[in-house]
Design a protein that fits this description.
Elements: H1 6-12, H2 39-46, H3 61-74, E1 78-82, H4 85-96, E2 102-105, H5 111-123, E3 127-130, E4 147-153, H6 165-175, E5 178-182, E6 200-204, E7 218-222, H7 235-241, H8 245-252, H9 254-258, H10 264-275, H11 277-296, E8 303-305, H12 315-322, E9 329-333, H13 337-346, E10 351-352, E11 362-364, H14 376-381, E12 388-392, H15 398-410
Helix pairs in contact: 1-3, 3-10, 7-8, 13-15
Bound molecules: pyridoxal-5'-phosphate.
Pyridoxal-5'-phosphate binds next to helix 4 and helix 5.
Amino acid sequence: MSEQKFITKILHNPFLKEDPHGSLHMPVYENVAFEFKSAEDIELAFQRKKPAHMYSRISNPTIEAFEQRIRAVTDAAGVVALSSGMAAISNVILAVAGEGDNIVTSKHLFGNTYSLFASTLKDWGLETRFTDLTQVDKIEPLIDAKTKAIFFETVTNPQLEVVDIKALSKLAKAKNILLIADTTLTPPYAFKAKDFGVDIEVLSSTKYISGGATSVGGVIIDNGIYDWRRNPKFEKDAKALGPFTFINRLRRNVYRNLGSCISPHNAFLQSVGLETLPLRLDVSCANALRIAEFLEGESQIKSVHYPGLKSSKYFEIAEKQFGKRSGGLLTFDLASKEECFKFLNGLKLIRRATNLNDNRTLILHPASTIFCEYDTALKKEMNVRETMIRLSVGIEDVDDLIADMKTALEGV
Ligand SMILES: *Cc1c(COP(=O)(O)O)cnc(C)c1O
């Protein structure tokens, strides 16, 4: 039989342990503890000689089924689901770096991720070196013996910048450091990170995977291409655990000790969301392109940014990496903040809300919301403009969305 495609694998990935009633959905195991037949059995479980669920902060069958579905479609060595996208990012960084170490990234990042690096982790003695990741020759001089990873977003939120991932991977390999990607805007199905040399993927499953914006969650994916024997922090474990080193260590240390688990109920919701990810993502990407093309033709719109647009400077690299699936997020500029607010207030169908990749189309003025805590100079460095609107395109009929935007533009 030929290899199954993404959606077939998601729908038919077997549960590790069958439900005794033959339920076609992995049931929601809303429990904390699991019982053992004997004292010897529970000892073996704690010693990890006999794999078993013991306590739901560490692992749980419903959460495991969600993780295994993602593992099946990514060919990853291991997957861990967490309470949020931010939990996924912070767990990975805390697992690979400590006091005195440094991470190289860009200021073109999701606002809370920037805050995690520039403030929270800084207070714990972890340095972040910010640079322009689109210019690979600028990165190398920043890497030293204490550099543990390069961190980037596949499509940055909200700058919609796209880096050359293979070039980053080549550099990371040469320097024996990790390449960590936030793939929230281009999740598995849009982008196979493993084929581009991404060692570890983190993503907010709150977004495309949950789909209906039903629940907050995050995912860590170890693609199994990094040789953990080459990493001083992990080399001891790597002799026994090989490609499973990182996920194992995470579960027995940072993930377990910080208590970052997702609830079984949320894992169930996101697992259901995953079943229709390919259908929703294709519609949302096609809608985003149609809307970007429409906006380019409107005289009131000063500029439109979408990597899938032929006029985008990232078009070619985006197509190489994501095919026709550059995501459902786009930005555009009006003449002023006042015009942006008038436009937002004139919409009847599109919702003013701070989320993305909901089934519904959502709109936001980033400078006055997600980035409001940053001063004008920093916003400029982050390329977060007062005149910029961010649109997360959903799966509605695209003509209805364009009609709503046309009416709102008339009122500007
Ligand atoms: C939303 C988002 C996050 C954070 O995810 P949460 O699930 O809200 O914690 C991280 N990165 C990107 C690119 C995001 O859009």
